[in-house]
Amino acid sequence: MMNCLQMWPEPIVRVQSLSDSGIRAIPERYIKRASERISSPASEVNIPVIDFQDLFSNDASLRLTTLSLISEACREWGFFQVVNHGVSHELMKRTCQVWHEFFHLPLEVKQVHANSPSTYEGYGSRLGVEKGAKLDWSDYFFLHYLPQSLRNHNKWPTLPTECRELVGEYCDELVKLCEKLMKVLSINLGLGEEYLQNAFGGKDVGACLRVNFYPKCPQPDLTLGLSSHSDPGGMTLLLPDHHVSGLQVRRGDDWVTVKPVPNAFIVNIGDQIQVLSNATYKSVEHRVIVNSAKERVSLALFYNPRGDILIEPAKELLTENHPALYPAMTFNEYRLFIRTRGPCGKSQVESLKASQ
Ligand code: OGA
Ligand code: NI
User: Fold this and answer.
1) Which fold is adopted by the domain 27-355?
2) pTM score, two decimals?
3) Which positions make up the signal peptide (predicted)?
4) pLDDT for the residue 1
């Protein structure tokens, strides 16, 4: 398994170069099956918006209402947005800006960071290593922030000059917010407030940043910026480009387009929290659509369990009528699936269930 992840099966083509070349028709490799394409115009919706400060209000009933709003969003949507989260808006803006600048640097500068499938760290243009696979209309930069042992500043962009410093500050703030959200989710699940954090490995959790770049696309109806997937890790904090929408979330049989609230983070539950909560919380499928008029940048901070710790449904949540739905597995094992096969809906976490 590891061997096949050492290199890409085909030469890498930067989607940005395709877009910049002015082609009118996208290459066959990016044309999705009809069933995966965007069919009818999706409605734009506001997914639940949570004012994080309400959790610290002097008003006990406001605190409880906020907890239950989050609980409902985790059960019903797998997604919510947070405002008043304590992260500086200026830092958010500058970090987005610096990544826009990074993707507009000359190709040779970015190529220095070209990634490989062994760690995915660096500048990439595909997920998965299956030869001949259909590809998504996006490039990205992926880096490790935690555990500290995997943090290697030399693998982060050297240009723009402020990039490394901003990424460090940004990830630091977001990890703090994730720690708080983990407490909220634990309390809502009826577990001790430290439960999820401890289950993730305490201080040894993982955190990675993926900056997605979706170039303009001449035939947006035929492709996707990111195919349908659920996030394999614990929890994701997404900073979407609030000038251009693109993220779609599955609601039953439909896809709805998320209307981003300025300065909010979109929080979504990943597969590991679905497993730990024994499916009380769902990691919901989502995907990204592209457009012909505007490029889009989004920053996804993935907060993950330590790689070598077993993740399994919390014993406290199991009863005779609700037995464990998933076997124990480490995140290192789990994420090989997406790293090999690329984004494929919820097939992985579902297949675990079927194997029981
Ligand atoms: C992701 C993701 C959504 C977006 O990076 O996993 O779902 O809007 N991104 O870019
Ligand atoms: Ni995602």
Assistant:
1) Jelly Rolls (2.60.120)
2) 0.96
3) none
4) 44
